[in-house]
Amino acid sequence: MNNEKEIKIIRGTTIVCFLFGVLGVAFAFLAGSKSMMLDGLYSLLQSLFILLSSFIVSLIGRKEDEKYNFGYTAFEPFFIIIRTVMLLVLNLSLAWSSVLSIIGGGYRVEASYGLIFTALSIFGCSIVYVILIKGARKFKSPILKAESRSWINDALLSVAVLLSFLLMYIFDKIGLAYIASYIDPSLTIIFVITLLPVLFKQMLSSVSQLLGRSPTKDVKEKMSQIIKKYSTEYSISSFKIYSISQGRSISSVIHVTVKEDIGIARADEARGLILKDIISLFPWADTDIVFTLDPSWFRYSIPEAQALSLSARSAQ
Length: 316
Hints:
Pfam families: Cation_efflux
Strand content: 5-15%
Subcellular location: Membrane
Shape: elongated
Distance between the termini: 54 Å
Mean pLDDT: 79
Structural class: mainly alpha
Helix content: over 70%
Radius of gyration: 26 Å
Low-confidence stretches: 307-316
Protein name: Cation diffusion facilitator family transporter
Family: Belongs to the cation diffusion facilitator (CDF) transporter (TC 2.A.4) family.
Strand order of the largest sheet: 1-2-3
Order of helices and strands: HHHHHHHEEHEH
Largest sheet: 3 strands, mixed
Domain Cation efflux protein transmembrane: 15-211
Number of strands: 3
């Protein structure tokens, strides 16, 4: 199963991430660098969330049960929200610490330790990013995609740290050593500022999924094309798709109106063909298809019934 392959990828990256975190914090203490400390803490926190990711991936692979009748797919965006909030807190805390350092006159960094770690970090993070992004595309996994973003951010942070050490070296050589004291905290602040929009966008996307956001127009258009393919054969005159997207899952109710009574057997045949085509495109789709000759009762069915009920209350 795809879930098992995802979990293997996640477990492998956990070990790498934890090792980078330990090395990053250790070298940060030796170098006296807050930007390196951000890099190391980022990796340690990330390793914790990668472990939780494997649990979430196994969880969403479970079938529905008495407690969760519609399965566990909503746990995926919920987990990404928690993870993103923690990263935001970490980044903002270190940015504030760097602001205080600048106000206090900056600090010096031992560049030799930083150069060793950042070179290893850039190389390692880039390789893991490639593995994760390929896995995310293959398995259509939001969790692997979120993890890949974290690793590319970690790699970019390492590049920024490397540049800061090079700038310190240059300023020292040209007699501007006092400026070098401000480079590391300034770079930490700049990196946090550039990272915030990505984290906020990721969090808002997951929040909208928990609130029942519809999938992209492209997804609904592809589903529409599948139904239209069978319109003539099964006398379909019209249809309406209601969908929500939660993580990799797409839950849909499709109301289909037919021109003539095609019978239960024919309706089941059409339903089976449509569902088979939808699943081939969207493996995590959960779709209900309702056929009718008389569409007037649809307005009493969820989700249209909700709007009808609100309209009736406002008229009273």
